[in-house]
Amino acid sequence: MIRAPFLFRPALHYVPMKITRRVFSFFLFLAPLVFSVAGGSADQPAANRKYLVFVGTYTTKTESKGIYGYEFDADTGKLMPKGIAAETPDPSWVAVHPSGKFLYAANEAGKTSTVSAFAVDAKSGKLTLLNQIPSLGEDPCYLSFDKTGKYVLVANYSSGTIAVFPILADGRLGEHTAMVKDQGGTGPNKERQEGPHAHWIGTSSDNRFALVADLGLDEVLIYRFDANKGMLSRNDPPLMTVPLLLAISWRGVKVNPGAGPRHFAFHPNGKFGYVLNEMDATVIAFSYQRNNGALSFLQTIATLPKGFSGRNDAAEIAVHPSGKFVYTSNRGHDSIAIFAIDPAKGTLTFVAHVPTAGKVPRNFAIDPSGKYLLAENQFSNNIVVFRINPATGGLTPTGQVVEVPSPVDLTFLPME
């Protein structure tokens, strides 16, 4: 199968010892305002800190043994290996629970695919298996949490099924609360679009809807999500027509034939969303209607340079924490495409292509500080660290290249 702010620190100036009380009082009055404005700015990511990093890999026909741990310093950009965090087969997607206490992995193994729950030892970076249950489909390739943190949502690629599992108090996964098989026609690519292939699932910011990017159906499906019961249902009544797209229904939006929706990323403001299409290497920008979960078309833009004629599969998409940029990865062109976001319209403008210094960047991740992008080159067996220019979105290699067998997903956990 080819299948997810630094704090403003004002400079401390020398102050004469014989400062007047009036000036000193004024400074004390002004300082909290400065810090308040800086800390609340929408384009300032989280404070610098250190993180545990967990990397999911493919173990079949590779030298990998499972999930690998690292320590990442957001001040220096250094990524330091901590060894194997857990031995587990083909953890193609890993996600840390918002509490930081647990990690969940999609074990991609055809008809015997599972989802694994682990307890996290924050000091050692080691993972302890809590339980492992069937994924209710074939080849799970994406996991996410609903906004309450009570449920894990799973996209099973080969079977085209999605499932919801409750997270028990001790971190184990309970009996599923929902399982749905995506329904629809087939795409023009008979080899890859013979049926539904759920590739991404996530909930809206208000937790009322679950969106699914289905590569096989050329659709972004929209379901209503009941956070009290963990259930999925049809998004009725029918949604409004979306201009320039081929179809619209309770299901969601249908993209151009053969596009192959792979991943979806919301803008931090919740007003816009971006769909990465794997097969035609495009990004579609949408406005998002919170009242009914509808997506309204804004723009389609290519992730490849004009004239590129080689094989390429677009892989990952992410919106920078500042909300200013969108990044996507190209497997074949082996690059990161950078786009600037119009803050009012949500549309994209191409900025640059940056080589990932390796082959097949299946995944990349932006660290929570927003200062670095870590690109995982699956076929080069390495992770390459890039520094992000906060003004332009540009990427510059830091020189950090860390070897890891067949890396395909990466997630961060703040260290205390």
Detailed description of the structure:
By secondary structure, the protein is mostly beta strands. It has a domain of 285 residues: YVTN repeat-like/Quinoprotein amine dehydrogenase (Methylamine Dehydrogenase, Chain H, 7 Propeller), CATH 2.130.10.10. Strands 12, 13, 14, 15, 16 and 17 form a 6-stranded antiparallel β-sheet that branches. A 4-stranded antiparallel β-sheet has the order 3-2-1-30, with no helix packed on it. The two termini are 38 Å apart. The N terminus is likely disordered.
Secondary-structure topology with pairs:
Elements: H1 21-39, E1 50-57, E2 66-73, E3 78-87, E4 91-96, E5 102-107, E6 114-120, E7 127-134, E8 140-145, E9 151-156, E10 161-166, E11 178-181, E12 198-203, E13 209-214, E14 219-226, E15 231-234, E16 247-249, E17 252-254, E18 261-266, E19 272-277, E20 282-289, E21 294-302, E22 313-319, E23 325-331, E24 335-341, E25 348-355, E26 361-366, E27 372-377, E28 382-388, E29 395-403, E30 407-414
Antiparallel strand pairs: 1-2, 1-30, 2-3, 4-5, 5-6, 6-7, 8-9, 9-10, 10-11, 12-13, 13-14, 14-15, 14-17, 16-17, 18-19, 19-20, 20-21, 22-23, 23-24, 24-25, 26-27, 27-28, 28-29
The span between the termini is 38 Å
Number of helices: 1
Q: Report the count of strand segments.
A: 30
Mean pLDDT value: 88
Radius of gyration: 22 Å
Q: What structural category do the secondary elements indicate?
A: mainly beta
Helix content: under 10%
Residue windows where pLDDT falls under 50 for at least 5 positions: 1-45, 237-250
Using the 3D structure, state the CATH architecture of the domain at 46-311 and 396-414: 7 Propeller
The first-level CATH class of the domain at 46-311 and 396-414 is given as Mainly Beta
The CATH topology assignment of the domain at 46-311 and 396-414 is: Methylamine Dehydrogenase, Chain H
Q: Biggest sheet: strands, sense, closure? A: 6 strands, antiparallel
CATH-defined superfamily of the domain at 46-311 and 396-414: YVTN repeat-like/Quinoprotein amine dehydrogenase
Envelope shape = globular
Strand content: over 45%
